[in-house]
């Protein structure tokens, strides 16, 4: 699900970017903010960072004594994407394994659907393995599935989310 | 839309293996490159408590309650949900500026931007964002939460049954919601683009 968040971060501007006229300073703050935003990549409470949409407020700068840099508290609005437990989403199968499949949806690449949560489907090995149902419905690479997310985990070190999904339920399945 | 595994006959399976235990990613005889152990946190379904209450005698398996969407409880302050169509409008606006933005090498675009944009575009099947917002605002008056509204808009349901099945948190208000929901779905189907 997409989220719109208003955040406050501290942006540090090196002394040589400080300009009396102010325009270059404004640009420097925006560029530095976007740099940090892109570097942070994701957060456990907000999901994957997608874009800064507006700069709402720039507070008073505070000079850092040893370096001469200036710290500005900046309030901005951004767009993020996060998968939630209980959410229904449509993803594309990108990897088929013996015990389940991996689905991607937006920036979330690793949504795991176990064969235990795919009632009626059995694994068909081969050069291009697939899962086939009793009614001859196929789940193979590239197929779009509507699933319900039943668990989400954030890995701080990799800055990535992983999720577990369920296909067993009314109105869930291949699209 | 396609061959969905739909219908009221579809059974929900109980968890056969406790998914709260870690599991490895394996591809037959070889381990995946990452070989990660993953553990997920799930809601306690009360299985252990039930056994204790019965004193270990013939524990009765209660049907597990459906997983509820609890976005509002998990979200920090100053964070709101957006529908796919709303996000698509914002992201497409940024994409239009991309030519100008990319001329300046100092400006960095987040790695997830493109994937987020593709996702939003795929979920945006409506001709008018404003109409979608107006239709769903009517449902909000009947006590539907923002996250539930977003989910309804994103899944493009064809019937009220589909909504109640995929958004179990609304089942409690089924009697109150049935009529306004049917009306909202009729309106949404009129403003949906044909794929």
UniProtKB/TrEMBL annotation, chain A:
Main location: nucleus
A GO molecular-function descriptor: single-stranded RNA binding
Zinc-finger in keyword set: no
InterPro entries in UniProt: NA-bd_OB-fold, RNA_pol_Rpb7-like_N_sf, Rpb7-like
Protein location: Nucleus
Keyword annotations of the record: DNA-directed RNA polymerase, Nucleus, Transcription
GO biological process: DNA-templated transcription initiation
GO cellular component entries: DNA-directed RNA polymerase complex; nucleus
Domain of life: Eukaryota
Function: DNA-dependent RNA polymerase which catalyzes the transcription of DNA into RNA using the four ribonucleoside triphosphates as substrates.
Protein name: DNA-directed RNA polymerase subunit
Native species: Daucus carota subsp. sativus (Carrot)
């Amino acid at each position: 699900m997409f989220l719109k968040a208003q955040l406050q971060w501290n942006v540090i501007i090196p002394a040589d970017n400080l300009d009396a006229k102010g325009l270059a300073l404004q640009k420097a703050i925006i560029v530095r903010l976007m740099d940090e935003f892109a570097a942070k990549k994701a957060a456990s409470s907000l999901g994957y960072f997608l874009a800064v949409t507006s700069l709402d407020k720039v507070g008073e700068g505070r000079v850092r004594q040893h370096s001469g840099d200036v710290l500005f508290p900046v309030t901005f609005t951004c767009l993020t994407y996060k998968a939630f437990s209980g959410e229904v989403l449509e993803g594309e199968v990108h990897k088929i394994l013996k015990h389940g499949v991996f689905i991607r949806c937006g920036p979330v690449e690793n949504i795991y659907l176990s064969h235990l949560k795919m009632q009626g489907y059995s694994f068909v090995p081969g050069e291009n393995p697939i899962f086939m149902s009793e009614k001859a419905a196929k789940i193979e690479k590239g197929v779009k599935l509507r699933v319900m997310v039943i668990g989400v985990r954030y890995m701080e070190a990799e800055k990535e989310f992983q999720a577990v999904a369920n296909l067993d339920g009314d109105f869930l399945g291949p699209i | 839309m396609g061959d969905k595994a739909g219908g009221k006959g579809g059974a929900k399976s109980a968890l056969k293996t406790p998914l709260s235990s870690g599991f490895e990613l394996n591809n037959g005889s070889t381990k995946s490159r990452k070989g990660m152990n993953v553990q997920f946190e799930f809601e306690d379904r009360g299985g252990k408590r039930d056994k204790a209450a019965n004193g270990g005698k013939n524990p009765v398996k209660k049907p597990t309650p459906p997983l509820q969407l609890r976005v509002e409880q998990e979200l920090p302050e100053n964070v709101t949900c957006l529908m796919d169509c709303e996000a698509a409008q914002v992201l497409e606006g940024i994409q239009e500026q991309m030519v100008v933005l990319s001329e300046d090498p100092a400006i960095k675009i987040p790695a997830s931007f493109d994937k987020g944009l593709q996702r939003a575009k795929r979920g945006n099947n409506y001709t008018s964002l404003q109409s979608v917002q107006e239709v769903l605002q009517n449902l909000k008056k009947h006590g539907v939460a923002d996250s539930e509204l977003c989910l309804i808009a994103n899944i493009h349901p064809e019937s009220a049954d589909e909504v109640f099945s995929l958004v179990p948190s609304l089942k409690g208000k089924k009697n109150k919601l049935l009529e306004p929901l049917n009306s909202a779905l009729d309106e949404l189907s009129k403003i949906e683009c044909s794929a």
